[in-house]
Design a protein that fits this description.
alpha/beta; single chain; 278 residues
Length: 278
């Protein structure tokens, strides 16, 4: 399971615009009395989640970026160095200056299907991720929550797909296309049958059962002409996924795709979640 650096760069502005300001503020409050924090970012991709979260955290930050794809880890290193006001090599890590904050960033290739506990160093204060948990299974989520709960680690995660999509203008094939896309989402992405739109609810239930305080907030993409390139890529990938299921006639898929590529605005639902040990 991996994504291209170009796709991640295309979606980053929409991702950052979609985040729940309320939960980001709650995260800032949680660590407001700290002068430093150690963060593990799972499925880090090209580093977008760090760039969307850093302002809410203390002035001294240590980030451990974890991904299975070495191409994405290399892209993360390059893009973070370009994003920072100043970037310095520190062995295999980067030390970034951004405004008044100093971020020490290390990069780690790991298979999250392996020993999850080994992913989190002893000094971890916060676990975070973006656009990850709808791709993993509910069984994996239960195992993940158990690992965090055993160490009383908080989780801040954003942009988990919630299954809602609204298109303007509408098209006769919208309902069938969405149902087929959900079927595709439930296929195994390497972690067992994917939780898809159930992911945030599954995490909330699992964390609540461990005694955590859980907050959820919507973080939808609202794609208009400002994000026209992203919308075009989205509908192309959406149609490709539907085609793989065999649930919608190819002629209907082609007609839907042609209509969507001619120009569309859409709402794609996501949820953010903050889970804090009591």
């Amino acid at each position: 399971m991996s994504f291209s650096p170009d796709w991640l760069a295309l979606r980053e502005p929409a991702d950052h615009a979609a985040r729940s300001a309320h939960l980001l503020s709650r995260l800032a409050t949680q660590f407001g009395d700290r002068d430093q924090v150690s963060v593990v970012d799972l499925g880090c991709g090209a580093g977008s989640n760090l760039r969307g979260t850093w302002r809410a955290l203390p002035d001294r930050q240590s980030w451990r970026l974890v991904d299975y794809d070495p191409v994405l880890l290399a892209a993360a290193r390059q893009r973070l160095a370009a994003w920072a006001d100043r970037a310095e090599e520190a062995g295999t890590a980067l030390v970034l200056t951004k405004g008044a904050k100093i971020l020490t960033v290390s990069f780690h290739q790991a298979d999250l299907n392996g020993d999850l506990d080994a992913v989190f160093p002893a000094d971890t204060d916060l676990v975070t991720a973006a656009a990850l948990f709808d791709l993993v299974s509910e069984a994996w989520i239960a195992r993940f929550v158990a690992v965090l709960a055993a160490r009383a680690l908080p989780l801040y995660t954003v942009l988990t797909y919630d299954g809602t999509e609204r298109w303007d203008p509408t098209h006769p094939a919208d309902t069938a296309m969405l149902a087929a896309f959900h079927a595709h989402q439930g296929t195994d992405k390497g972690f067992g049958p994917a939780a898809g739109p159930r992911a945030t609810a599954a995490m909330a239930e699992a964390f609540s059962a461990k005694g955590y305080a859980v907050e959820r907030a919507p973080s939808p993409w609202r794609l208009d002409e400002t994000f026209s390139d992203l919308a075009r890529e989205l509908v192309t990938g959406f149609a490709g996924a539907v085609s793989e299921t065999g649930r919608v006639p190819q002629a209907d898929i082609a007609a839907w795709l042609a209509a969507r590529q001619a120009g569309v605005t859409c709402h794609v639902g996501h949820e953010d979640l903050l889970a804090l040990p009591r």
